[in-house]
Amino acid sequence: MTVGIETLTGGRTGGGAHFRDVPFRNALPHPLYFRAAQMPQNATYPRHSHPWGEFVYSYSGMMEVSLTDGHYLAPPHYAVWLPPDIEHRGLNRHAAVHCSLYVDPALCGPLPPETTALEVSPLLRAMLEHLRAGGDEDHGAAGHLRFLRVVVDLVAAAPRVGTYLPWSTDPALEPVLAHLRENPADNRSLAEHARLGGLAERTLIRRCLRDLGMPFTEWKQRLRVVRAMPMLEANDTVERISATLGYSNASSFIAMFKRMTGVTPDDYRVSAR
Fold it and tell me: What range defines the domain where residue 244 resides?
């Protein structure tokens, strides 16, 4: 068996949606199992659960993981960890190359007990890139499994960031988030959004911290990072992207992107290729 990139060949329905079946239903062939997949636009895995844990990472594009009570994003430089027996559905709205590392429940002890997004360190990213390039690696080879155990150790040590772009169903806060999701270039302040919702600014501040776990400004910047990534991968210019996202000049956008991701937009574009 090989570790190379798997190209989606599953069914397709109207509207351009591609459907992919999950690779394992009842048992893993090895306690640790790595696979990579190349996904077209609007590809989705069905809602399912399995008795092993799963680490999901996107080399390029944006993977989304939907749970019954939450929605997690895995842009490059971040990943999603799913503990055993968590019902979930995977999807990507744009073309993506992603991987999954499946972890036997007996090896999940050091890993987070809850679903969470994780920061991916440069070392962990390099190891995942090595696995993707592994072509004809034997899944059961002792050296390969030792390598995967080191990957698991790095995943266990990775900083947890919740859902990366959390959501709220609060009747006052959700319309603000929904508006920004559709209009990420809107530069109105939180106070102006609060007035539109008939709330005091302090009330909206408290609800952002309570439901999102972060200030309003950080959530808006994360949204803009998420929106910028597919545009960078599509080779849009930094100037065009910054204008589309509401920045008066490219340098302000570049500074925000580097602060949020640790790399410049151009560096991200190169790494995504």
Answer: 173-272
pTM > 0.70: yes
Are 130 and 48 in a shared domain? yes
Quick: pLDDT tens for 71-123.
787 777 889 999 999 998 888 777 788 899 999 999 999 999 999 999 999 99
Total of domains in the chain: 2
For residues 251 and 271, give the distance between their C-alpha atoms in angstroms, rounded to a whole number.
20
User: At 58, is the secondary structure helix, strand, or coil?
Assistant: strand
Residue 168 lies in a domain: no
Number of other residues whose CB lies within 10 A of the CB of residue 102: 21
